[in-house]
Amino acid sequence: TIDCPKKGKPPDEGGHENSCNKCSALYAVIEELRALHRDATRRSDLSSEEENELEQIEQDLVEVKEDLDEYRSHLARQISEDRFDEKEIENLADDTCRVTSDWKHKILECYYRENMKKYFGKRGIHMI
Fold first, then answer.
1. Which of 29, 38, 85, 114 has CA atoms 20 to 30 A from the CA of 57?
2. CB of 17 within 8 A of CB of 8?
């Protein structure tokens, strides 16, 4: 499982030491929905249309959990990158500068057709 991005942060920044109730609650909802789905699939009086619908719901539940995992990974990466940027700026020598570019407009434009799942699942973006 993926730790909550706020775990270990100071309380004044919304952080906490133990497992996050909000993060745990999201997974609990998915598990409750799966339990309801299992109960529904056990019924013997289902029509073929209802069976097809239940199969689609099952697939949706799998995708929702995967999307949640990917989103939480994205948040963790974002926090890690922000911490790195802060440290880098603090340690910047007086005679140097740091150049940042607006990558959202220049690079993301190339990926406008990608869905969020493909985008957040990447480890890096190669620029040409």
1. 114
2. yes
Per-residue pLDDT tens for 102-123?
Answer: 555 555 555 555 566 665 655 5
Q: Across the chain, which distance is largest between two alpha carbons, in Å?
A: 76
pLDDT tens per residue across span 31-44? 999 999 999 999 98
Can you give the pTM of this predicted structure?
A: 0.57
The set of residues, in sequence order, having a beta carbon less than 8 Å from that of 3 and lying 6+ positions away, is 76
